[in-house]
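quick one, 402 residues, struct below
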Amino acid sequence: MAAMTRARGWGVVVLVALGAAVAQAFGRFTYSVLLPAVRDDLGVSNTVAGLLGTANVAAYLAGTLLIIRATATVRLMTIMRVGFTLSLTGLAIAAVAPNGAVLALGLVVMGLGGACIWIPSPAIAAAAVPPARRGTAVGMIGAGIGTGIVFAGRLSEALRDRWGVEAWQDVYRIETAIGLVVALAIVVLLRPDAEPAPARTGSGLAVLRTMQGWVPLTLAYAAFGFSYLLAITYLTARLEDDAGYSDGRAAGVFAAVGLATIVGGIALGAVADRIGPRPSLVGGFALFAAGTGGILSGQTAAVLAGGVAIGMMFGGLPSVIATYIVQASDHVTYGPRYAVATLAFGIAQVTSPQIGGLIADLTGSFTMVFLLSGGVALLGAVASSMLPTPEPERERVAAARA
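---
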C-alpha cells in the first residue's frame, strides 16, 4: 500500500511537470527559439521582437496579480485548470497569427495561462511526496519545462530547415495539439478533492512579510527573472547574428540548454534536499553567471558549456526558490507568498526583453546584453547568501538527525 501511495504521488509530480511544459516551454519559451524566424518573417526590428516577448511576460505579471487575490478563495487545482484553458487558447491564436498584432494577443493569453499553471505547480507537486523529497519533486517541474524546450528547439530546427522562416506557425500548431492531450490527462487524472480549501488571509504582501528572509528571497527571484530571460530570449539571436552560427547550430545550442534544464531541475532540487536552499542558490547563481561568459566567447566548446550551465540553472534556480517557500509555508500562506514573490519576478521579466532588444539595437550586438545578464545573476547570488533556513525545514532536519 505504501509503495502504491508513493507511486501515485510521483505520478502526480509527472503530470504537473507535463503541465508546466505546456505552460512554460510551449506558452513562453518557444517564442525565444522562434524569435529570429518571427523577426525575419514579419520584418520587424530587435526592439519590436523584444516588445512581443515583453507582451508575454507583462501578461504573466498581470496573471500573477490576479492569482494573489484568487488564492484566498480558489483552490490551486482550479487555478491550474483555468491556466490550461488560457495557455491552449494563446497557442491556437499564435498558430494562425497573420501579423505581429495577432501574435502579441496570443502571447498575452499564453502569459496569463502560464502564471495560472506555474504558481500552483510547486505546491501541488511537493504535497504529493514525502517532505524529504520536496526539492526533487519541485525540480522535476523544471525537468518538464526542459523537455518541452528540447522538443521546441528540435521541432523548430526541423521545420525551418524544410520550409524556412515561415514555419514558425507550424511549431505552434503542433504544440497546441500536444497541449490538448496533456490538459485532458490532467483534468481526468488530477482531482482537487484532497486539497484543503483556501482560507482568507491578509493582503499577499502582508502574508509574504511574515516569512523570514522574504526580502533577500524576493530580490533573488527578481534577479533570476531579469537575468535568465535576457539569456534565453536572445541566445539564438546572439549566436546567429554575432557569432555567425547557422540557424541549425543555434537551435542545437538552444536544445542543449533544454536538455540541461531537465538535469538541472532534478539535480539542484536533490542538492537542496541535502544541503539546503541557501547554498544551492548561491552556487547556482554563480554558475549561471559563468555560463553567460561561455556564450560570449563564441567558441563552440565554451558556448556549449555555457549553454549547459545556463540550462541547468534555468531549471534549478526557480525550483529551489519555490521549494524554499513551500518549506516555509502551509496551505494557507503558500499561495499568497509565492504569488507576491512571483510578482517581483514578473516585474523583472517585463523589463528584461525590451531592455535587451534596445541595447542590441543601440550597440549593434548582443555582447552587453549577456554581460548584463551575468552581472544581475551575481547580484542574485549575493541576495541568496542572506537567506535564513526556513523554520519548518530547520525542525525537519533536526528531527532527521535525532
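Confidence is low (pLDDT under 50) at residues 393-402.
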